[in-house]
Design a protein that fits this description.
The complex is a heterotrimer of chains A (about 325), B (about 325) and C (about 300). With about 325 residues, chain A is mostly helical. Chain A has 14 helices and four strands. In chain B, helix 5 packs antiparallel against helix 11 and helix 12 packs parallel to helix 14. Chain B: Keywords: Cell inner membrane, Cell membrane, Membrane, Transmembrane, Transmembrane helix, Transport.
Chain lengths: ~325, ~325, ~300
């Protein structure tokens, strides 16, 4: 029953990245006494939830054939708003932060839709500009949540599982189902895979893209708020470089930068791969300098392996 | 990414587009915009148009500019290079550290050789192995930063006897009254612009960036062409490292952090499309200068440094939008 | 004797007392951003050497790479590994407090090193060990006042925005200057993120903007020397008094050459050793004061000979 070709080509349910995740998990379990424990595994889930949440939205945008570089800045702005506005109540602050994320996503989407400017450029601009907004709003200051209820939420658990991990897993499930089972999900693939055919089929391409930018804006903001609850505070530099790690995770998960191909389960695997690697190397006390090199080399190695697998399956189709 | 984007633009073309009032301005493009910026700033600050200020800004912009010249070639060839930030850190730390150990000539030679090797690695992975350039150079950005730190052990590097060496001339010297960094920047820009515009090599780069399939059918060796663009990019980074190292006469390990984005912002502002097959060096030069003068102008006017980021956001979108609208209009008029 | 005390502390705090059979104490440290400048790198080396010199100490050395979120994750990992004490060099004085609180709740004593955390978090830490940055700013203000005879206009080049050390030094400098030296006016303050090249650029812009600058206060010598470089290129270094903090080797040499007025002598080795010692004292159950400042004296051409040249 197992279709080996489909499995190898990554189109089956078990993607290559999951093989990798399992392999490194076994490796670190052997190498470190502390790695394989419920406490540490839930730690990894919490630590990856930030990049993970953004990556869920980023997957949609990238399946669309677009990219969003502004997510790190959006995360920072949402975190600052969710702490800075707490004088008006925590609920108001959190809602305002999320709404801002969605609005920034809408702005990016609208610009890509209406101007035809490449998403890379639109969101590169936003990445620089939104960071400016954070500094204008915070005047370079870190904010501190005087209400411990806010940071208690970030540390709270249901049973042994941290709430943040549960939120992340629920969102992953929801995004997986939307992508697989709804019209919006199918349209997202169609727009990225073959825009002209999608247009002929009556799909409103611009609208579909804009919604996906709003989704990634929402998740960036949500990740920012949840990160702020972990810290009980926000800093203006929060989220720097997160766009790079998010894109890395999504690509590791098998989503193609050219659009039309990708999956949420793959993205989850990509996010976990980075999280397990970082955590495991911490546990093994790999010096920080080497971690950078190792992450870079692994990323390139995965790209090469992925390409070889695709080449093989491509030849298979031809034969 | 390229093919999907092309069709997307094709679909945009079929819509009716009103170019509107801004026709004239957009037709003149980025140059007009540049002059307007300069004029606006000169009204608000006396020092802005002073010779010393202009020289300061151009000198400061030349490090980004030198790198941008190389990255523009990569982009015209249809790829991206995000690794230049770490590569700049790598090369600067290397040349400064080796200066006291093996002398300036040796340091410069070794630095150029090793930087070109990094460029070759990029070129190999993107050109020959056909991996996605965005991800490859992103991975290299991380890996090279790690290499710098491993090499230096995380310590700052310094040139001990700064008055006893001629090395500083690349960053601090003057030739015929013009700062050496500006001369290096101008020379590189002119040479690369000439190569891109008037040689067969330049045409091949445009061809593989614009239509890779057709280019290969016409007999262009795509692998080598892409490879060579990364070598040019690395060479430019090495030149920038020379200027940076000689300017500071020391280096921190993260000195190039974030340069990849500033470089991209300058190139985009200049109007080189990220899709490949189009663009020019002189536009990039203007884009980089605009960024430099905006930063300087806002600071002179007393705005906090982060306002420049907001302004950059707005002008990047506006500049590219106007440029696109203008191209579209020209296409439409040609068709009718 | 020592071991007994350690064990009793651990049993009292219910931390892995049973699992713990070795003779060593395990101390985890999460640093701010090693490699960003030599001070932090030298600190790390000194810390590892000090730990290696002590047979009873096993250390877990982590680096947050300047990222607050990563540092919080590392604190969690250290709690997970059930280390006996955590030393944290905060990436941010406020955002790390909940993580410190978690360690506190898990019964693991936390020592904050080098850069203070906000007052709200003080009840959760066992001790702070490091320089008094407000005092350093004030000392620099006094030197500036002296050098300018109480009259002049100066510019300030500050460290990374939002970072406690940068804010405290600025605050200490500005407050003391206003108090001791009302005749000296700060024309403008710009950050240069502890980066020499950025400081050079910032100073170049200051030099164009202001025809008269009598003094420069930089948040550390790395930036101060950048400013000095810029002024030298513009031929104006002779008219300007340069004062920094955290004396670097380049700053020391510049004072030697008479180009740089003064700085604050702060040794990363003292800093690292003090942090480790404080953590060991806490674990040994000694009565440790909450705030442990090590000496950071003024350094100028007059007393330069009393200090060794910094190794970084």
């Amino acid at each position: 029953m197992i279709d080996i070709k489909r499995f190898m080509s990554g189109s089956a349910f078990i993607q290559p990245i999951w093989v990798f995740v399992v392999a490194i998990t076994i490796f670190f379990s052997i190498m470190s006494d502390y790695f394989l424990s419920v406490g540490n595994l839930t730690n990894i889930l919490v630590q990856t939830s930030t990049i993970g949440l953004i990556a869920l939205g980023m997957t949609y945008v990238m399946i669309n054939g677009n990219i969003d570089l502004s997510v790190g800045a959006t995360l920072g702005l949402a975190a600052s708003l969710s702490v800075g506005l707490q004088d008006y109540g925590i609920t108001v602050a959190v809602l305002a932060a999320i709404a801002t994320g969605v609005a920034l996503g809408a702005l990016n989407g609208l610009l890509v839709w209406k101007t035809g400017v490449n998403a890379f450029i639109v969101t590169l601009g936003a990445m620089i500009g939104v960071r400016g907004l954070i500094f204008v709003y915070t005047e370079e200051q870190s904010f501190y949540a005087s209400n411990f209820a806010f940071s208690d939420f970030g540390a709270s658990t249901i049973g042994p599982i941290p709430v943040l991990a549960i939120i992340f897993l629920l969102c992953t499930l929801a995004m997986h189902l939307v992508l697989k089972k709804t019209g919006h999900g199918r349209n997202t693939f169609a727009v990225g895979g073959n825009p002209e055919a999608a247009m002929d089929a009556g799909i409103r391409i611009g609208r579909n893209m804009m919604i996906n930018f709003m989704i990634v804006g929402f998740f960036a903001a949500l990740a920012g708020v949840l990160l702020a609850t972990q810290m009980g505070a926000s800093t203006p530099n929060l989220g720097r470089d997160y766009e790079l790690w998010t894109i890395t995770a999504v690509v590791l998960g098998g989503t193609k930068l050219t659009g039309g191909y990708g999956s949420i389960m793959g993205t989850l695997g990509g996010v976990l791969a980075i999280g397990v690697l970082r955590n495991g190397m911490n546990m093994m006390q790999v010096p920080a300098f080497y971690v950078l090199v190792i992450l870079g080399v692994i990323l390139i190695a995965v790209l090469i392996i992925d390409q070889q697998i695709n080449l093989k399956s491509f030849k298979g189709v031809q034969a | 990414m390229a093919s999907a984007e092309h069709t997307k633009q094709g679909f945009m073309l079929s819509k009716k587009h009103k170019a509107g009032l801004l026709n004239f301005l957009s037709a003149q493009g980025i140059l007009v915009f540049f002059l307007i910026c300069m004029f606006a700033f000169s009204l608000t600050s006396e020092q802005f148009l002073s010779q010393s200020n202009i020289m300061t800004v151009v000198r400061q912009a030349s490090i980004i500019g030198i790198i941008a010249v190389g990255v523009t070639v990569v982009i015209i060839g249809g790829n991206l290079d995000l690794s230049v930030g770490s590569m700049l850190s790598f090369s600067t730390v290397l040349v400064v550290d080796l200066h006291d150990k093996i002398g300036p000539v040796g340091a410069i030679l070794v630095m150029f050789a090793l930087t070109l090797m990094l460029g070759a690695l990029n070129g190999l992975l993107v050109g020959f192995m056909r991996l996605n350039s965005l991800i490859v150079t992103l991975a290299m950005l991380s890996a090279i930063q790690g290499l710098v730190l491993i090499y230096s052990g995380g310590q700052n590097v310094d040139i001990a006897n700064q008055s006893d060496t001629w090395f500083g001339v690349f960053g601090q010297g003057y030739l015929l009254g013009i700062a050496v960094p500006i001369i290096i920047f101008s020379l590189l820009a002119i040479i690369v612009q000439v190569v891109m515009s008037f040689t067969g090599y330049g045409r091949r780069i445009f061809a593989i960036g614009g239509n890779p399939v057709a280019a290969v059918y016409s007999g262009i060796r795509k692998n080598w062409c892409v490879f060579s663009t990364y070598m040019i990019s690395a060479f430019c980074v090495a030149c920038a490292a020379l200027v940076l190292g000689a300017r500071v006469m020391g280096s921190q390990n993260n000195v190039g952090q974030g340069y990849e984005l500033l470089v991209l912002a300058g190139i985009i502002l200049g109007g080189t499309s990220l899709l490949g097959g189009a663009g020019s060096i002189w536009k990039t030069v203007i884009g980089v200068l605009i960024l430099g003068f905006i930063q300087n102008g806002l600071l002179l006017m007393g705005y906090p440094y982060y306002t420049q980021w907001l302004v950059t956001w707005v002008i990047i979108i506006l500049a590219v939008w106007l440029d696109l609208a203008n191209k579209r209009k020209r296409l439409l008029t040609r068709h009718s | 004797m020592f071991k007994k005390k350690v064990l009793s502390v651990m049993v009292a705090t219910l931390v892995s007392g049973a699992v713990y059979a070795q003779d060593e104490v395990r101390i985890g440290i999460t640093q701010n951003n090693v490699g960003v400048d030599s001070y932090q790198t030298t600190y790390e080396k000194a810390f590892e050497e000090a730990a290696a010199a002590n047979d009873n100490v096993d250390v877990v050395v982590l680096d947050a790479g300047g990222d607050v979120a990563r540092q919080i994750g590392q604190v969690r990992n250290l709690i997970q590994q059930q280390v006996d004490a955590i030393i944290i060099w905060p990436t941010n004085g406020q955002a790390v407090i909940p993580a410190i609180r978690q360690a506190y709740n898990a019964g693991i004593p936390v020592v904050v090193t080098n850069s203070k955390i906000a007052d709200a978090g003080l009840e959760y830490i066992a001790a702070f060990s490091g320089p008094d940055n407000v005092q350093q700013g004030a000392s620099s203000a006094e030197m500036m006042c002296e050098a300018l005879d109480g009259e002049g206009q100066i510019v300030q080049i500050a460290g990374q925005p939002g970072y406690t050390t940068a804010m405290e030094r600025s605050q200490g400098f500005e407050d003391r200057l206003a108090e001791a030296c009302p005749g000296v006016e700060i024309l403008e303050t710009q950050p240069a993120d502890w980066n020499r090249e950025k400081a050079q650029r910032v100073m170049e812009n200051f030099l164009t903007k202001y025809d008269v600058i009598d003094g420069v206060y930089a948040g550390d010598d790395n930036m101060g020397v950048g400013a000095l470089n810029a002024a030298k290129s513009a031929g104006r270094a002779g008219d300007i008094v340069f004062i920094g903090a955290t004396n670097f080797a380049v700053g020391y040499e510049a004072i030697e050459r008479g180009e740089y007025y003064g700085s604050i002598y702060q040794s990363p080795v003292d800093d690292a050793e003090a942090a480790l010692q404080t953590a060991l004292d806490v674990l040994a159950g000694k009565d440790v004061p909450k705030m442990n400042f090590f000496e950071t004296p003024k350094i100028t051409a007059d007393n330069l000979a009393e200090f060794d040249k910094p190794v970084f």
